[in-house]
């Protein structure tokens, strides 16, 4: 297994996980073989046991290995199950993630928020929306990385005619076509069991674990104009955030 040249960028556990994954892909550890133990990996790379365990956990999540007490870490695949992930530290980074994907199979509805929908969205009863339901796919257009439902203020319904050719977030399309600027996004992340209808579209089993992300986009006037809900299948998606310490004063 190659040595790792540490530098800025990915955390150490991710660098170690990638080095092991590369070794598996080259056939150094065939399917069915055992990886070196934690202590051996610690000595080989001069990493802490915590870093090694995080790297092995990451490899398990991507479907390359399985870990069993008393046996060790067994290689079960030579290539990982694809997982679409992104790290968000700013609105620009969120827009960048969206630009690497696009929405397909759009369904459009003109709706007026009743009290139930308004309560769900955190909007006002009587507010008019363009509701967009779609699947989000990566550049290779393989299995969808999300089912998405968006409620967009009706004054921006003109985006409907441009969506088919647009890659990226709908909010960025609103900014492009209208005198609007996203100034704040409120995000809520929760665990979800994927219901049968959405599971069928995402090609996963009903009840599979998923990640639900609700986002509310506010414009330059501070008023929310877009409410988006996305359901991501657990095996194909991860979300990372970096929190920096801000000293008081």
From TrEMBL:
Domain of life of the organism encoding this protein: Bacteria
Limits of the HTH gntR-type domain: 10-78
Family annotation (CDD domains): WHTH_GntR
GO BP terms, alphabetized: negative regulation of DNA-templated transcription
InterPro entries: Bact_HTH_transcr_reg (IPR050679), Chorismate_lyase_/UTRA_dom_sf (IPR028978), Tscrpt_reg_HTH_GntR (IPR000524), UTRA (IPR011663), WH-like_DNA-bd_sf (IPR036388), WH_DNA-bd_sf (IPR036390)
Family annotation (PROSITE patterns): HTH_GNTR
GO molecular function, one term: DNA binding
Keyword presence, Glycoprotein: no
Pfam families: GntR, UTRA
Signal peptide coordinates: none
Keywords: DNA-binding, Transcription, Transcription regulation
Protein name per its UniProtKB record: GntR family transcriptional regulator
Organism encoding this protein: Devosia ginsengisoli
């Amino acid at each position: 297994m190659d040595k790792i040249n540490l530098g800025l960028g990915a955390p150490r556990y991710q660098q170690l996980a990638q080095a092991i994954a590369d070794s598996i892909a080259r056939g150094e550890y065939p399917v069915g073989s055992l990886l070196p133990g934690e202590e051996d990996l610690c000595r080989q790379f001069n990493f802490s046991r915590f870093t090694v365990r995080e790297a092995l956990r990451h490899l398990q999540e991507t479907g390359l290995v399985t870990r069993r007490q008393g046996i060790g870490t067994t290689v079960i695949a030579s290539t990982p199950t694809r997982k679409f992930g992104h790290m968000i530290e700013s609105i620009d980074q969120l827009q960048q993630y969206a630009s690497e994907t696009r929405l397909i199979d759009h369904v459009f509805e003109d709706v007026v928020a009743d009290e139930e929908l308004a309560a769900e969205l955190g909007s006002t009863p009587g507010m008019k929306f363009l509701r967009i339901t779609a699947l989000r796919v990566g550049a290779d257009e393989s299995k969808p990385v999300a089912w998405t439902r968006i409620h967009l203020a009706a004054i921006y319904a003109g985006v409907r005619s441009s969506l088919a050719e647009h890659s990226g977030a709908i909010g960025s399309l609103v900014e492009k076509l209208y005198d609007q600027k996203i100034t704040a996004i409120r995000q809520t992340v929760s665990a979800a069991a994927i219901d049968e209808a959405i599971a069928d579209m995402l090609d996963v089993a009903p009840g599979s674990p998923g990640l639900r992300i609700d986002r509310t986009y506010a414009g330059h006037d501070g008023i929310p104009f877009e409410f988006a809900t996305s359901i991501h299948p657990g095996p194909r998606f991860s979300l990372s955030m970096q929190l920096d310490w801000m000293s008081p004063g």
